[in-house]
Amino acid sequence: MTALALPPLRAPFTGGDPHAALRDARGVIEDAIVNHPRSLQRTIGPSEIGTPCEHCLAAKLAGWDQVRDVAWLPTIGTALHAWVEEAFIAHENRRGAQHDGGLRYLTEAKVMVGTILGQEIWGSTDLLDVATGMTVDWKLVGAATLRKAKTGPSPVYRTQADLYAKGWNDAGVRVDHVAIAYLPRNAVSLDDAIWWTAPHDRQRAVDALARAERIATNLAALTALGPDAVAAWISGLPRDPDCFDCARFPDGAHLTPPGHRAPAAQFADLLGSTAA
Predict the structure, then answer these.
(1) Edge-to-edge strand order for the sheet containing 119-129?
(2) What is the arithmetic mean of pLDDT over 80-99?
(3) pLDDT, tens digit, for every residue of 26-44?
(4) Average model confidence (pLDDT) for the chain?
(5) Domain ranges, ordered by start, for the chain
(6) Which of 72, 101, 110, 127 might form a disulfide with 136, Cβ 3.0–4.6 angstroms?
(7) Is residue 168 within 8 Å of residue 136, measured between CB atoms?
(8) pLDDT in the model for residue 249
(9) DSSP assignment of the chain, as one string?
(10) Measured between alpha carbons, how far is 258 from 247 in angstroms, rounded to an integer?
């Protein structure tokens, strides 16, 4: 019997330009980021429904593509989520949760938070503490966001948390509290983290879904008039002055984030008026 010739385990040494090799390595990383499910997602999710920017909410509901750089910071956040998930799974396994009262912590569990025009909206809950009845969102943030978090979460984060809690209650799992853990991206200790919690506000989630439903209903009606009518309506909607997303949509190519002034106007403010 002739033995099968197996392919080599390693590619042969060929030499070459180390700078080109580093570009190859970077290309592998960037390709993984661009093709990650989070980057390819087009359906609106719980993390976007609470945006105070009506323009961007409508654009996302309409399925508009956004122009983005390779999303490095979100990728770091995704990596953190994966590490934390492993930590909680290992914790539950070590204590024999399956044989000792059941799982306390559910990680990255999918839940349906509601519907928009009959379409189910699903999201992944970072952590669900079923014993306490509390959801927890992990947010890996820089120093500026950490400072703002001391006064409470943004409308986007708070709505996201309440949407998840609503979804679990609708599914028959009691959730009374929501929490957000602001984990410092640039600190050396978790002592700088901010651990926020509040009672679940179901009405906040219901109102956010109703707002999205109204906008989606208008979009559906305008679709019959053609894409130009849809684009004109979306472009005329109110924009949040601190929104970073507006400049990423097709009608925001002339804008710089955050805010909605053209770059020339921003430079004019910095330099002062030259009018006599």
Answers:
(1) 105-116, 119-129, 134-141, 177-184, 194-199
(2) 93
(3) 999 999 998 877 655 568 9
(4) 89
(5) 42-271
(6) 127
(7) no
(8) 92
(9) -PPP-PPPSSPPP----HHHHHHHHHHHHHHHHHTSHHHH--S--HHHHT-S-HHHHHHHHTT--------HHHHHHHHHHHHHHHHHHHHHHHTTGGGTT--SEEEEEEEEEEEETTEEEEEEEEEEETTTTEEEEEEEE-HHHHHHHTT---HHHHHHHHHHHHHHHHTT----EEEEEEEESS-SSGGG-EEEEEE--HHHHHHHHHHHHHHHHHHHHHHTT-HHHHHHHHHTS---TT-SSGGGSGGGTT--SSSS--HHHHHHHHH-----
(10) 8
Nearest-angstrom CA–CA distance, 239 and 219: 17
Fold that domain 42-271 belongs to in CATH: Lambda Exonuclease; Chain A (3.90.320)
CB count in 10 Å sphere of residue 11: 6
Q: Which residue has the tokens 């008039």?
A: 225
Of 163, 165, 155, which Cα lies nearest the Cα of 115? 163
Strand-strand pairing, 177-184 and 105-116: unpaired
What is the pTM (predicted TM-score) of this model? Answer: 0.84
Separation CA 238–CA 83 (nearest Å)? 39
Cα separation, 86 vs 79, in Å, equals 11
* 133-142 CB burial, b ≥16 within 10 A, e <16: bbbbbbbbbe
Task: Indicate if the alpha-carbon torsion angle 98, 102, 103, 109 is positive or negative.
Answer: positive
* Residues 227, 78: Cα–Cα separation, whole Å: 34
